[in-house]
Amino acid sequence: MEDRVWRIIKTVSDMYEIDLERFRRRRPFELLVAVILSQRTSRENVRKAMERFNRRFRDVEDVANARLREIEDAIRPAGIWRMKAARIRKIARQLLKLEGGLDSILKKPYPEARKILSSMEGVGPKTADVFLMAARDEPVLPIDTHIFRIMRRLGVADERDDYESLRLKLEAVTPPHMRMKAHLALIEFGRNICRARNPKCSQCPLAEICLSREGCSNP
Ligand code: SF4
User: Fold this and answer.
1) What single DSSP character describes residue 78?
2) How many angstroms is it from 109 CA to the middle of ligand 1?
3) pLDDT tens column, 65-106
4) Ligand 1 atom 2, closest CA
């Protein structure tokens, strides 16, 4: 199984040029907001919402003191804006009360940092992992819905797997320095080739080892 998982990770990672620097251009709070906004929406919607958010708000304090309506208006393109705005303001207020704010969390070891972040409303283990990966190159390989689907179709994940077990399975074969690229490349692969509907199996370099080609419109 490990050889199989590695072949998938390596093949997909080699398919895409990924701009890893794009995260490093963002400040930590901005990154956290972007990761929360990315829940259940497209990358393009997050980009539009972040442009508006950055035009309106300068820092955590600004967000913590804002009226909910202002945050909702700023992030509207990202969808489910009422819930996301309430969570973002609540997190901003929590961070303001925390000595050292988000920077202090980023200095903590991974299990502790992840636990603190996951205790905030709207930040589950996946959001915490994506944030830590992007904000400080934490060598984790977060699992999103694309990655779950790909791994199920390729026989790596089964019905017993959950977020943690699949993450550990992929991390076990992926060297730490390759995990961020693997995460981002797998998402690209899920968006462009192994799509939820009508996967492009005829263009897939993993077709010969794919156990589940059900749903392929062009097998
Ligand atoms: S063959 Fe089709 S279903 Fe299988 S991994 Fe490739 S795109 Fe996905």
Assistant:
1) G
2) 37
3) 999 999 999 999 999 999 999 999 999 999 999 999 999 999
4) 201
CA of 3 to the centre of ligand 1 (A): 18
Find the 24 Cα to ligand 1 centroid distance in Å. 32
Cβ of 204 closer than 6 Å to ligand 1, yes or no, is yes
The ligand 1 atom at the shortest distance from the C-alpha of residue 210 is: 4
Using a 6 Å cutoff on CB, does residue 134 contact ligand 1?
A: no
pLDDT tens digits for 17-60? 988 887 777 899 999 999 999 988 888 999 999 999 999 999 99
Taking the C-alpha atoms of residue 219 and residue 214, their distance in angstroms, rounded to an integer, is 9
Q: Give the position, in ligand 1's atom list, of the atom nearest the Cα of 206.
A: 6
CA distance 34 to 129: 13
**How much is the pTM?**
0.92
Rounded Cα gap, residues 105 and 208, in angstroms:
44
| Pair 93, 99: CB distance under 8 Å | no
Structural domains in the chain, sorted by start: 2-18+142-209 (1.10.1670.10), 21-136 (1.10.340.30)
Query: 150-204: per-residue pLDDT in tens?
Result: 999 999 999 999 999 999 999 999 999 999 999 999 999 999 999 999 999 999 9
Question: In whole angstroms, what is the distance from residue 206 CA to residue 57 CA?
Answer: 44
